[in-house]
């Protein structure tokens, strides 16, 4: 009897050996089937994992850059103004009780190291109108004639953001807004300038 015959006989007579061999074969078959099923899914899971890691990285990086590029909160600076001057934002204004023509008013402002008042925003204009009192006040706008453009005392052109009524060469502020008159007309004046690095406007 050969070895093979003996093994075959044992397998035929011993039911546990046959079962264990069948289990071994079915285990190998099961393992092969699992590998066949798992093999196509592994690249898919890897791709999904890589995409999730990259997406998380993009979100974290975007958040970091957004926080870093956020503009700092701007704090409105209020200057310390000299006695009898009124501050608004980064400017100081002086409201004078004296009545003078436009040229004398500008000279008075210069003596205070200031110039006739200029406004850049509607808020500044409203501030000037509110604090000027019942009197009219010169501002730092002038033109050669009614056919020329308005210019500030520093020679920059007025952007015409607010209409100036009248045909005069010099602008003044009244309760209704901006008006113009001849330079020899006597009105209270306003000014703006720099003192010790701080901007201020004078209303002589």
List the helices and strands and how they pair.
Layout: H1 3-13, H2 15-68, E1 86-88, E2 91-95, E3 99-100, H3 102-111, E4 115-116, H4 122-131, E5 137-142, E6 151-152, E7 164-165, E8 170-174, E9 177-181, E10 187-189, E11 191-195, E12 198-203
Parallel strand pairs: 2-12, 5-10, 7-9
Antiparallel strand pairs: 1-2, 3-10, 4-11, 5-6, 5-8, 8-9, 11-12
GO molecular function: carbohydrate binding
Protein name: C-type lectin domain family 2 member D isoform X3
Organism: Physeter macrocephalus
**Largest beta-sheet characterization:** 7 strands, mixed
SSE class: alpha+beta
Name the shape in a single word. rod-shaped
CATH architecture of the largest domain: Roll
Helical amount: 40-55%
| Total helical elements | 4
Low-pLDDT sequence parts = 193-204
Instruction: Give the number of domains.
Output: 2
Q: What is the CATH topology assignment of the largest domain?
A: Mannose-Binding Protein A, Chain A
CATH class of the largest domain: Alpha Beta
* CATH homologous superfamily assignment of the largest domain: Mannose-Binding Protein A, subunit A
Rg over C-alpha atoms, rounded to the nearest angstrom: 44 Å
> Which percent band covers the strand fraction?
15-25%
Strand segment count = 12
- Integer average pLDDT: 75
Roughly how many Å apart are the termini? 134 Å
The succession of helices and strands, N to C, reads HHEEEHEHEEEEEEEE
């Amino acid at each position: 009897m050969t070895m093979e015959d003996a093994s075959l006989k044992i397998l035929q007579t011993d039911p546990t050996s046959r079962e264990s061999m069948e289990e071994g074969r079915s285990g190998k078959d099961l393992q092969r089937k699992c590998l066949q099923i798992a093999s196509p899914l592994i690249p898919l899971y890897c791709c999904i994992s890589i995409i999730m890691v990259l997406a998380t990285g993009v979100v974290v990086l975007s958040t970091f850059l957004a926080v870093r590029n956020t503009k700092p909160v701007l704090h409105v600076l209020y200057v310390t103004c000299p006695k009898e001057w009124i501050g608004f934002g980064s400017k100081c204004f002086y409201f004078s009780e004296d009545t003078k023509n436009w040229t004398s008013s500008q000279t008075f402002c210069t003596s205070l190291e200031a110039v006739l008042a200029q406004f850049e925003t509607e808020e500044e204009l409203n501030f000037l109108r509110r604090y000027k009192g019942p009197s009219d006040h010169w501002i730092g706008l002038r033109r050669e004639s009614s056919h020329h453009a308005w210019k500030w005392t520093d020679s920059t052109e007025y952007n015409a953001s607010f209409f100036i009524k009248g045909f005069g060469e010099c602008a003044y502020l009244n309760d209704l807004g901006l008006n113009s008159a001849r330079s020899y007309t006597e009105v209270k004046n306003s000014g703006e300038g720099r003192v010790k690095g701080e901007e201020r406007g004078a209303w002589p």
